[in-house]
Design brief:
- By secondary structure, the protein is mainly alpha-helical.
- The chain has one domain.
- About 75% of the residues lie in helices and about 0% in strands.
- Helix 1 packs antiparallel against helix 2.
- It is rod-shaped, with a radius of gyration of 18 Å.
- The two termini are about 15 Å apart.
- About 15% of the residues are buried.
Length: about 90
């Protein structure tokens, strides 16, 4: 998770442009990571429901539920970071 770069008072136009580009790149990166966490969360939800062939035992289902919860937190963290970077571009 990357915090946005803030412009410093004496940074000038070039420094400001570099920060804008850096924040935009971080926004894209965090957005992709958020989407990846969302996809993994959905896969883990199916595992928790017992809908994945060969992974429908109780241990697998508990693992899927815990994985889905962790991925939900990761998704929120990345989406929040992406929004912060988006607002600072």
């Amino acid at each position: 998770m990357s915090a946005p770069n803030a412009d410093k008072p004496n940074e000038g136009i070039v420094g400001s442009a570099i920060n804008t580009v850096t924040n935009a790149a971080q926004y894209v990166s965090e957005t992709i990571q958020g989407k990846s966490a969302e996809a993994q969360k959905e896969a883990d939800k199916e595992k928790a429901k017992g809908n994945v062939p060969g992974q429908d035992g109780l241990g697998d289902r508990v693992s899927g539920a815990l994985g889905a919860a962790q991925n939900k937190m990761d998704e929120g963290k990345h989406n929040t970071a992406a929004e912060a970077n988006k607002r600072s571009t």
